[in-house]
Amino acid sequence: MSRLLDINGIDVSYGNAPILRGVSMHVKDGEIVGVVGESGSGKSTTIYATLGILGNGGKVTAGSIHYDGRDLLALSQEDLRKMRGKEMSLVAQNPVTSFHPIRKINKQLKELVACHSGMTYAEAEEHMCEIMAKMNLKDGKRLLNSYAFELSGGMCQRVSIAMALVLSPKLLLADEPTSALDVTVQKQVVEEMRKLRDEYGNSTLIVSHNMGVISYISDRVYVMFAGRVMEYGEKGAVIKRPMHPYTKNLIAAVPTMDAPMPTGVRPTGFDRTVPGCVFYQSCPCRQEVCALSDPEPVETESGHFVKCHCIREGKL
Amino acid sequence: MNAVEVENLKVSFYSHKSNSFVHAVDDVSFTLGENEFLGLVGESGCGKSTIARMLMGLQIPDGGTIRIKGKEIKPPYPHNVYKQIQMIYQMPQDSFDPRRKVGTCITEIQSNFGVNKREARDFTMHLLTRVGLTEEYYNKYPHEMSGGECQRAAIARSLSLKPDVLICDEPTSALDVSVQAQVVELLAQLRKEMKLGVLFISHDLALVQGLCDSVMVMYQGKIVERGSAKEITQNPREDYTRKLLSSVLLV
């Protein structure tokens, strides 16, 4: 499988504040990649950088982002605009606010079709109803004729996923698509995103702070902390056999069905500007070298990479 | 004596869409023992928060009785009911006045109940350190704090009148997992220390089962099942509980 999206060592800063440092990730054809991390770890920023919609003075200062062989950072805003929606599209966190509040959804679909050639409105409407039907929304025509606020959160999120897929983009970027939904709807949406991938073969980059969602939906997982990728690999490897002390800490804090809540978990403070490992302050196995230099990823098993000095030296 | 007794509590809202009344809370009865950690789970819109609002006197029930420490209370609640029952909310930042310092908010509540300024200030400092913040936080504004810190301050505020009952309406849904683990650990400790009866509302069954003594499952305005955390997760009697359990995405 070739790499559809290849993010290579990007640094992003908002004004003078550095947010991401040396973030690399890739998404292969037809793959669902999950990015998990706590608030402020730079998960959403990675998605916005890919789409070229950083805003607020955000800039990619180093590294490269390639989509299907094209260098996204070299493209003009106009070229990017043509790609957004058609080649890659975004599912936002809050479905109700991601639609225009005083325009019906079909009007927004018309606008989408008008901005991108290749499909008439009638075709788009039919295709969208078809996708919605696959997500258990039978009454597509009526939904299209409603305002976003008239739909429930779960319905609205499914409509926005359908809208993101209507022009058959190759890459779907989902920014916390389920965090505004409650558990029963969450499971449904996540299941349906998987089903749609099987049906249409689109690649997905999904960002979430919910470990359950990521471990259910993804093929591969990246763990981010303080603007850096700490560990990545196959889902089973990262979640069942976490190697990085930060990942272990994070997974230990997730409530389970058969044990009392864990005690003694400490949230980890961080300083993005340190030269060494960002987890240094809270790391149980830190050593001198950790404060001085940022570790390079080490492959612990096939495709499972960990950024930690202790693992490199075999101390963990 | 039970901390809270609720009998046949009812409320309905008029829906313009269907031109009929929706029974948001439909004939609900339950008791919350002293020093009991009771979980209330259910999906969005099932009426969990409406129960909390009625217990706090923010929503007037259509019928039913609420007794706190054996004494029946009717809305509008007299001032001193809030010495017994307090609540923490889902969005910690939104539950503080954005233009006032956190310490001032906590002190003011005590002043309203006749505690003199100096004592109130000292007790606020004590509470802030107890919930794991430092005394510097007295002079911070809500926007200067992270979600977890702000939720701790909200817990300090709710405990400033030494209540018997604490209602937590999804206190951790806006927080990261590691912060969540820490906040619920704090709640569990404080419950023991201050002999609190806690009603813990959440939609996360895994969290509730790991934290609470007993759990109530709510669906469409009714409490469909109540049992110990173990019974509910391992031996659910109701179909709805099973459905809720099956939708928990485990790691």
What would you say this structure looks like, in words?
The complex is a heterodimer of chains A (316) and B (251). In chain A, helix 5 packs across helix 7 (153-165) and helix 7 (153-165) packs parallel to helix 8 (183-200). The radius of gyration of chain A is 20 Å and the shape is globular. Chain A contains 13 helices and twelve strands. In chain A, helix 8 links the parallel strand 7 and strand 8 (203-208). In chain A, strands 6-7-8-3-9-10-12-11 form an eight-stranded mixed sheet, sandwiched between helices. A four-stranded antiparallel sheet of chain A has the order 2-1-4-5, covered by helices on one side. The relative contact order of chain A is 0.14. Chain A is of the alpha/beta class and 316 residues long. Chain B is built from eight helices and ten strands. Chain B has helices at residues 48-55, 102-112, 117-130, 147-159, 177-194, 205-211, 229-234, 239-246, and strands at 2-15, 20-33, 37-41, 63-68, 71-73, 85-88, 165-169, 197-202, 214-219, 222-228. In chain B, the strands form two sheets. A six-stranded mixed sheet of chain B has the order 6-7-8-3-9-10, with helices on both faces. A four-stranded antiparallel sheet of chain B has the order 2-1-4-5, covered by helices on one side. In chain B, helix 2 crosses helix 3 (117-130), helix 2 (102-112) packs parallel to helix 4 and helix 4 (147-159) packs parallel to helix 5 (177-194). Chain B is α/β, with parallel strands linked by helices.
